[in-house]
Automatic annotation (TrEMBL):
InterPro entries: HPF/YfiA_ribosome-assoc, RHF-like, RHF/RaiA. It comes from the Bacteria. It comes from Aquitalea palustris. GO terms for molecular function: ribosomal small subunit binding. One of its GO terms (cellular component) is cytosolic small ribosomal subunit. Residues 86-107 are annotated as: Disordered. This is Ribosome hibernation promoting factor. One of its GO terms (biological process) is negative regulation of translational elongation.
Length: 107
């Protein structure tokens, strides 16, 4: 998995990067074929904004979240991303039900 973190009007500190990586582990537990992750963190006056683009095999997922605190915005972002990844995973799974064979009754 390639991880790219950029900050707009914000310096990405090692603590912030480590926090992001620990939160992204939760998402990569659900899906093992993550190709690329791009995270953009930005500040506009009092609004902290976090965006993520996740490139999976067969799908690109874009999620964004805003909050007054960057860590809270990242938490909200990862919750949204987790729901999107699970939704994508469920769509990929086979929906066909296999018929169950019942044993014959012996007399």
């Amino acid at each position: 998995m390639n991880l790219k973190v950029t900050g707009l009007h914000l310096e990405v500190t090692p603590a912030l990067r480590e926090f992001l990586e620990s939160k992204l582990e939760r998402v990569t537990r659900h899906v093992d074929h993550v190709i690329d992750v791009t995270v953009t963190l930005s500040v506009d006056k009092l609004v902290q904004k976090a965006e993520v683009n996740v490139h999976l095999s067969g799908k690109d997922i874009h999620v964004e979240a805003t909050d007054s605190d960057m860590y809270a915005a990242i938490d909200s972002l990862m919750d949204k991303l987790d729901r999107q990844v699970l939704k994508h995973k469920e769509k990929q799974s086979e929906h066909r039900v296999t018929p169950q064979v019942q044993p014959e009754a012996t007399l």
